[in-house]
Batch of 2 targets.
Target 1
Amino acid sequence: MTLELKGLYTGLKFSSAHVVFGHDSCGVIHGHTYYVDVKLYGEPSGDFGFILDFKILKKIVKKICKTLDHKLLIPENHSNLKYSITNNHIIYTFCNKDSKKEYKIPLEDILLLPLKGTTAEELSIYIAELVKKELSNLNIDYNINCIEITLYEGLGQGATYRISLDNENK
Ligand SMILES: [Zn+2]
């Protein structure tokens, strides 16, 4: 059975800026409003027969959205990106065979992410892993087999990532 939250209708969204480094049209700083759909695959259990209480799942995903909201998202593991952090700024350089760009941005404006890029694909993986971790920390994942995150970059276009939970031993 699946339990689902649609970001558009449940306020699971954030607005952020990013760069798809080296891309023709998306290689400049620009922004999106992102919506997060969450699906949990599992079995109903407990007193109420829930896979998980909607309220709890909403709270977890909203908290993740809040950390990403109103930030310039920077992928710290991008292969063509070098960065250094000084007092209150990050200075980073993107360099490939066609171009070199240097940025200096106040730290409070950015979020450095442990990713190779900030595409919808990468961000959907990042969010799925955070949801998995939080469900495990709260010890409320025992009847959940799988988490699926669809991250919409604007309305109508998104990337979906599905992550399994290792619940065999519980
Ligand atoms: Zn974009």
Target 2
Amino acid sequence: MLDETLPQDLSTGHPAAALSADPAPGLAHDPGTGHRRPPRREFKARGSFTERCAGCNLPVLNCLCPYRASAESEARVWLITHPLEHLKPTNTGRLIRDVLPATEVFTWYRTAPDERLLALLDDPRFAPFVIFPDDQPDYAERVVGMEAVGAAKRKDKVPVFILLDGTWRQARRIFRKSDYLDRLPVLPLATSRVTRYRLRKPASQAHLCTAEVAAELLRQSGDGEAAQVLDDYFDAFNVSYAASRRYEKLEAPTAAMRRLLARHGG
Ligand SMILES: [Zn+2]
């Protein structure tokens, strides 16, 4: 199966190249435009890129499985994931569940709220917060700061960060079209961190991907170790996937990878 997120430079870009039987593709000219074509890549290279590990779903060239690690945290994460996001191998929400096994993942359907999610929202053990920017006035009275997470812990509640996992547009739609979220406090993530995510082009460097948001929330709310492990695991994912897209086998583990491996050793 071809990767829908394959960047432009890895697809042929020139449909004629795929059909041509030209024996010297590096020198060939596109019959339509007369422009010189880029050299064709070997079909095998593309095939090995799309061959995925059954364990981590990354290209086998740089598999993530050796770096998988888990951690303990006081806070939990529940993901409400847009159905289109589940299909994307570049989704980072799943990294959170690898690191924090208590993470819940719900698929969002506008007309059919998940019954289990509704039950968990009513469970008095939890103090759920919807993570969303505070940039609109109509829900300003629901906006809280990180101190509300500390207050929930002092009341022996488990704080829960509800992340809306999708594109920015999908997340806004989930926020606006899910009335069961309307009564929850809204916790905006305040951070000057810029994204390190390389697999999709962000609208802005300030737009963090889902795993980065979770790591930052954990760090700010006092789960420093879990935050570090998730950050390192995200880093390993990001570097491994980006290298595989360049058909490049990583020669040596990065600093983040070495920290994850050391956790296994200890
Ligand atoms: Zn793997």
